[in-house]
Amino acid sequence: MSPYRLPDPALEAILAEDTPEGDATTFALGIGDARGVLEYRARGPMTLCGSEEAARMGQLRDLAVAGPVAASGSVLDAGQLILRLEGRAADLHAVWKTSQTLMEYLSGIASATAAIVAAARRGNPAASVACTRKNFPGTKAAAIKAILCGGATPHRLSLSETLLVFAEHRAFLDESPAASLARLRNAWPERRIVVEVGDEAEAALWLDAGADVLQLEKLPVAAVARIAAIAARMPRPPLIAAAGGVNAGNAEDFARAGAGVLVTSSPYFAPPRDVAVTLRPAP
């Protein structure tokens, strides 16, 4: 099921990038008023994302959506129909490539996310995957939709809504970890406090201080397992998050080692999944 659809102003802006003054070729050929059909199909297996946006782009250009639309989050096989649009050739050409490319990129992110989620759950059915805010700037709403469709959650939607203490924050502090945690809890009492650490010594320090979530940055699987075992014996065990270099090839190992959350940016860099398009005259 699709989590949401990008709003019309965002879709209009995307369409306007490709046709700022119309489609010169279609206009010059004089074929704009001919009636046609545009079909989108999965060229190979994929976790789909962006189909609602593609359908709405068509509607914004007076095209009719003919039949059901495969929902974002659907797992498709090769050849499976995603969407069919009908209308004027000029409008079909205006929507065709932009909507196709959007679905390809978002389906690439969603499919890569789904692969990491599946690997993590092989290691621990309770493990979850969270994707960072390292999406390409300006694409947050679309990128977050794609990772949600792949079964992950956002790690941080923005700096404004989470407490995550990095070494770069601690460089400006001259106090104990316990004092820093106490100040944070006093200032934002309803928030969990996440602390990122880069080695086992730092992990022990912030475990003892009482961090709610310990984010282990680029630590090997064996180190994650040792820290997770120590955390599990504490009266109030913190959540252990593995971050840095997490992908479908190692997610199972990190989850099995005791990481309850796997933090990753890799889906944002996944190759697009091909969407096959046919544009033909209406029968």
Separation of the first and last Cα atoms: 32 Å
Provide mean pLDDT, rounded.
97
Question: Strand-and-helix sequence, N→C?
Answer: HHEEHEEEHEHEEHHEHEHEHEE
For the report, how would you describe the main beta sheet?
A: 7 strands, parallel
Strand content range: 15-25%
Q: In percent, how helical is the residue content?
A: 40-55%
Please tell me what the overall shape is. Answer: elongated
Output the number of helix runs.
10
Q: Helix/strand-derived class?
A: alpha/beta
Tally of extended strands?
13
Spatial order of the strands forming the largest sheet: 7-6-12-11-10-9-8
- Catalogue the unreliable spans: none
Rg estimate, integer Å? 23 Å
Describe this structure in words.
It is a single chain. Strand 6, helix 5 and strand 7 form a beta-alpha-beta unit. The chain has a seven-stranded parallel sheet. Strands 3-5-1-13 form a four-stranded antiparallel sheet, covered by helices on one side. The protein is built from ten helices and 13 strands. It has 283 residues and is α/β, with parallel strands linked by helices. 41% of the residues lie in helices and 20% in strands.
